[in-house]
Design a protein that fits this description.
The chain is an alpha/beta fold. The chain has helices spanning about 5-35, 60-65, 70-85, 90-110, 115-135, 145-155, 165-180, 255-280, 300-305, 320-330, 380-405, 415-425, 430-445, 445-455, 460-470, 500-520; strands spanning about 45-50, 55, 140, 195-200, 210, 210-215, 230-235, 285-290, 310-315, 330-335, 345-355, 360-365, 375-380, 405-410, 480, 485-490, 495-500. The strands form 5 sheets. Strands 6, 7, 8, 9, 10, 11 and 12 form a 7-stranded mixed β-sheet that branches. A 3-stranded antiparallel β-sheet has the order 3-14-17. The protein has a 3-stranded mixed β-sheet with strand order 4-13-5. α1 packs antiparallel against α4, α2 (about 60-65) runs antiparallel to α3 (about 70-85) and α5 (about 115-135) packs antiparallel against α16. It binds adenosine-5'-diphosphate (ADP) and magnesium ion (MG).
């Protein structure tokens, strides 16, 4: 080989090494940024957006999503957290922390001269084995066992800003899920069937589950329409009550008052005829979908609707339509000619009520109520309220995980220590490099107990060594009791979490590490 070529070849591989190292470094930096948020004693982050908006959160996915990350490999960690949010909804910090620890181990292995492909394959095997181990220590849970579900929700809420309200929020999350669960399809759960309305004013203690439906908007009463309706017949309409518009821009030139009158009259007649048809169907509460094409309802229309004693709620979002029609047992109506009594939903009472600093419309006493649930969340200010909303979402996701896979495992890092120990044992049965890599994988998982105790202000080395000892002695549920600052049996301490959260965190983190390992170049494009 001519010397020049040899030289080039060498340079290229150095660059590849550089790309890999810098990728790993960048991803590790992201992982380090969220590490301090892990666990009940973890810190919260204040995210300040350029527009002055401030968010306080403990949720890994939210922190990462708001973080301005530009390095491509670091972005993969943001995506990783997002995937965990989609799959499990909880464990979004854990997944990133585990990924960071695995990457650190990769770096050490690479320095020792292990080929990336070997690391990648061994990690994949180790993660499969880890899931097997987790399944073997998991405890089956029955959906009838409300207490167990509440315990799981409590664990997920214990690390949140709003954790002191978990005795209220956890049962609410569990009851909401149990209410929307269909006995005919017990493995299916759509969280979109649970509507969460967040309203500032009051405290989180005032939050409640509403037996019915709540709309965040007020009733339209500028024209003096009713704000309370008993024995309501609710119509959900998708058409507009306003003069039609042409597709193309055009002008009508009006030269005298006669013509102007004619236009007004024409508009009035049109709207009046629409309102008459609505009234004729027996409808007395009208929910109007938001329209982007033209006014969903004009002032004139509101005036006639008020005269006809029809209560109006405007600005219903398109994506709420399905939930509303499911809850009220009504059908969305796309054209005024389809206003038929059988398409309306019935409720005992529709009423605008004052909640905190604002007003909402409440529908109660719904006949044939569908399998949906509504939670009215309250909080003293927007920041608390938003975090409460995110936390409730996490709790709901935890219950959804249990619906999908009905197993619980202990929390407080006991599963990670157990898996780490068993993997280390298993690595001894393997050969050469593979054994070495699996061993490194096992050690990486100890980042969870290490970080949990660090965040709780305990001595991480003492705690991890103690945990190792207990697990070796067969105490497979021993974990860190963060609140008491010691090691206890996590099942007795009622700290449990869904199996799915931990298995998916380990699997996804491994996938991400393998992806980052296999990248040896960044190709910029325009
Ligand atoms: P994530 O976003 O990953 O869910 P969290 O901040 O919620 O991060 O922390 C989750 C970790 O905290 C899990 O490992 C869980 O076992 C642990 N944990 C939660 N509650 C407790 C508790 N009461 N005692 C000890 N560990 C806990
Ligand atoms: Mg959590």
């Amino acid at each position: 080989m001519p010397p020049k070529q040899k030289n080039e070849l060498y340079k290229e591989s150095a660059r590849k090494k550089d790309v890999r190292t810098s990728n790993i470094e960048a991803a590790k930096a992201v992982a380090d940024a969220v590490r301090t948020s892990l666990g009940p004693r973890g810190m919260d982050k204040m995210v300040a957006a350029p527009n002055g908006e401030v968010i306080i959160t403990n949720d890994g996915a939210t922190i990462l999503q708001k973080m301005t990350v530009t390095q491509p490999a670091a972005k993969m960690l943001v995506e990783l957290s997002k995937s965990q949010d989609v799959v499990a909804g909880d464990g979004t910090t854990s997944v990133v922390v585990i990924c960071g620890a695995l990457l650190k181990k990769c770096q050490e292995l690479l320095e020792k001269g292990v080929h990336p492909t070997i690391i990648s394959d061994s990690f994949s095997k180790a993660s499969a084995k880890a899931c097997e181990i987790l399944e073997s220590i998991a405890i089956p849970v029955d959906m009838e066992d409300r207490e167990a579900l509440i315990r799981a929700a409590n664990t997920s809420l214990s690390s949140k800003v709003v954790s002191q309200y978990s005795s209220l929020l956890s049962p609410m999350a569990v009851d909401a899920v149990l209410r929307v669960m269909d006995p005919a399809r017990p493995n299916m759960l759509d969280l979109r069937d649970i509507k969460v309305v967040a309203k500032a004013g009051g405290t989180i203690d005032d939050s409640e589950m509403v037996d019915g439906m709540v709309f965040d908007q007020k009733a339209a009463k500028s024209a003096g329409g009713p704000t309370r309706m008993e024995d309501a017949k609710v119509g959900l309409i998708q058409f507009q009550i306003s003069p039609p518009k042409t597709d193309i821009e055009n002008n009508v030139v009006v030269s005298d008052y006669n013509q102007m009158d004619r236009i007004y009259k024409e508009e009035r007649n049109y709207i009046l005829s629409v309102v008459k048809k609505i009234k004729a169907s027996g409808c007395n509460v009208l929910l109007i979908q938001k329209s982007i094409l033209r006014d969903a309802v004009t002032d004139l229309a509101l005036h006639y609707l008020a005269k006809a004693k029809i209560m109006v709620v405007r600005d219903i979002e398109r994506d709420e339509i399905e939930l509303i029609s499911k809850t009220l047992g009504c059908l969305p109506i796309a054209h005024v000619d389809n206003m038929k009594p059988e398409k309306l939903g019935s409720a005992k009472l529709v009423e605008e009520v004052e909640v905190g600093k604002g007003r909402v419309v409440k529908i109660t006493g719904i006949e044939n109520k569908g399998r949906t649930a509504t939670v009215l969340l309250r909080g003293s200010n927007k920041m608390v309220l938003e975090e409460a909303d995110r936390s409730l979402h996490d709790a709901l996701c935890v219950i959804r995980c249990l619906v999908n896979k009905r197993f619980l495992i202990a929390g407080g890092s006991s599963p990670e220590v157990q898996v780490s120990m068993q993997l280390a044992h298993w690595s001894k049965t393997l050969q050469g490099m593979e054994s070495f890599c699996v061993r490194a994988f096992a050690e990486a998982l100890e980042v969870v107990p290490y970080t949990l105790s660090e965040n709780a202000g305990l001595n991480p080395i003492n705690i991890v060594t103690e945990l190792r000892k207990l697990h070796a002695a067969g105490e497979k549920y021993a974990g860190i009791n963060v609140k008491k600052g010691c090691i206890t049996n996590m099942l007795e301490g009622d700290v449990v979490q869904p199996l799915l959260v931990t298995t998916s965190a380990i699997t996804l983190a491994t996938e991400c590490v393998r992806m980052i390992l296999k990248i040896d170049d960044i190709v910029p494009t325009r």
